[in-house]
Fold each of these.
Amino acid sequence: MALKLSKTPTSDFIEYGRFRKKSSAMFLIIVVSIIIAAVLVYLGFLRHLKLFEGTWIVTFLSHVKTHLFAYTFLGLFYACLFGGLFFMLIPIEAFYVAALKKGLLTPYHILFMFLGLITSYSINYIIGLRFSKLSKNIVSPKKFYRVKILINKFGKLAILFFNIIGMGSQQLTAVLGVFRYNKTRLLIFSLTGQLIKYTIITAAALGLF
């Protein structure tokens, strides 16, 4: 799906209400960071106080943690589900390499991993599609504009490239959701790029080159 662009050069792009948008984005990031920090502090230092013992939150977190550190099918699914969200900073690649070096990866693990990526990238797309204002507060307008240029100039190759290098691919799916880019095409090229990336990582980790 072609995206119509303004002919305004990037250097002339003006962000209106920049301070307000940045403030909203910073507030959202701070809130999410506080929630994540609170969860980590609780799991690391306050579990013995049993403040939330018996609640569904603790049960779910314990379930996720158990599967993550056991590198189960669900563990890899959760790593890709949460790490694939554009507002989370979880190094999926590091988790993958750790599982690979422990010899705990099978074709079924890869299947669950890509199911996690499909789910998280679909969520990113839907957030961009349905909550464009929220997405624009998290991803700066300049980045939106640059993505429009890249997609118009390089098309599917840009999606493939972002996913191979593993930088910004999560944000890209949210941005393209705002632009109502074809979801099927986006997922196909995103997953193809991810497959290439993890093939390279696997070969490197196993010393094949």
Note: Confidence is low (pLDDT under 50) at residues 4-16.
Amino acid sequence: MFDAFPYDEWGEDVADFWTFGGHNSTGTWILTVLGFTVMLVAFWGFFILENRKLAHQADRLKASGALDRPSTTTGPEA
């Protein structure tokens, strides 16, 4: 069987290793900034999408007259 694990046991040397570099490496910071940027773009896109949907629904409610104020008379005319 092929064993690609380069160490005899799991230890501190292994815990600091990953594909893009070790702790506080340039690769770690690049991926952190990229992840944060993607998250902000996703939030921005979500808010834009929801704003469009809310504006469309408000236009439909205005057109149907659902947002008109009710009349101020509350009882029968005397």
Note: Residues 54 and 60 are 10 Å apart (CA to CA).
Amino acid sequence: MLRFQLIRILQLTAAILLAGRAWQHLFWDAPYQHFFSGETGFTDWFSDKLTTVMGWFYLFGVIFCFTLDKRDTRWGNIFVFYSAALLLLAQLYRISNAYEMPTLLLYSSQFATPLIYYQLQFTKIPIGRIMNTLKLSLTLTLGAYAWYASGIYYGHKAAWIEGLNNAFGTGSNSAALFLYALAAFEIIIILVLWVKPLQKIAFAGILFWGILLMIASVALFFMEHPHWQSGVRSAWELLCLVPNAGLSYAIWKYVNEKKKEEDF
């Protein structure tokens, strides 16, 4: 019963994530030009075509989420490829951001989601091991945000400082202090995530953090592009942030059900 419940959570999470990536690729763009070292007409053409193809690939993934079940073991392997595609996309974003390692790690919960769904639905891997993979993906995601918020090595992102200044009228020093506090909060959530008696608290912390992240993502975009199209432009990004909430809810469900079994 617990495995079935977790499968449904990951099924919906993966579908929403893939829908977000399909939306992005079919109507906007993705950094596939980094497959080439130089900017040429062919590079632009190939990047555009590949983006469209990948958009349909992700869209079919949404359909696969609701049509494939545990009997379709061979077809279920497709979700491993979706994880690989999302990992590649994360690496391309890292390349476009001066090869900064935290950029790759920011997407950990995203490229882990199809893989975790595959493990739950199409394999017999024990749930406890799968939950460790899930927690590791959230740890890496939170750690990457904490890394950037702390300003260690890469400094604070100018867009984050400017966004806080515009939103709250704070100076650069106050904005930096807020980011330090955010980094500390994220590190605390990571520690709580791995302490079994406190994992349910981690769900509440990650949910609060995820909502804050979604609001910040949309707000930053509207500050750069203050018109209604910004909502359409940034909506797919919100869908791609859903794994943070989905995976943390899976942890809450797992811990809650295990606690009931122990009490019984």
Note: The mean pLDDT is 87.
